[in-house]
Amino acid sequence: MKFHKIIASGLGAGFAPVAPGTAGSILGIFLIGIFNYQLTGLYFDSRIILSLNLLAIIFMLFLGVYSIKIVHTQWEHDASQIVIDEIVGIWIAALAIPFSWKYYLYALILFRFFDITKPLFIKHFDNMKNDWSVMLDDVLAGIYSMISIHILLYFDVI
Asked: Which DSSP letter does residue 83 get?
């Protein structure tokens, strides 16, 4: 149970006294930034970095949902301490963007916007009230953010 609390709370970021979701998102962007920095430093091809990012996202998606299921036996549904969903969502938002803290900051801002406002179908997943829905609303916010940042990059807006 302790392991799953650590995972679900994003290494404890979910226990931040103010804005635990934002704390989890900041931790997530920091973790993926460090991960990609290390991979870039090892001169991995961008396709390999993308593949490793996708593997990390998929692994944490399933581990996160399983940890959410375990902690739901003691914590309320989608408790504020649960931020693994924000971490996975921000990793999706930062997928395949150029390695630059400036772009990672844009990904963070866009992700928090979509996660907080919950436009389109995000609200639908948030209202489902099951273990997967805790994760899927943030996955969708991450997808919207990723699409938005890639559009902004394509049109050279940022």
From this structure: -
- For the stretch 112-155, pLDDT in tens is 999 999 998 899 988 888 999 999 999 999 999 999 999 999 99
Q: How far apart are CA 40 and CA 28, in angstroms?
A: 18
**Rg over CA atoms, the chain:** 15
Closest CA to 90 of 106, 67, 69: 106
User: Please, what's the largest Cα pairwise distance for the chain?
Assistant: 47
State both tokens at 40: 């870039």
Q: Is the pLDDT of residue 107 over 90?
A: yes
Q: What gap in Å lies between CA 22 and CA 28, rounded to an integer?
A: 10
Dihedral over alpha carbons 141, 122, 63, 132 (to 10 degrees): -170
Q: Contact, 139 vs 89, CB < 8 A?
A: yes
Convert the pLDDT of each residue in 75-99 to its tens digit. 999 999 999 999 999 999 999 999 9
Beta carbons of 83 and 13 less than 8 angstroms apart: yes
Buried/exposed code over 58-75 (b: 16+ C-beta within 10 A; e: otherwise): eebbebbbebbebbbeeb
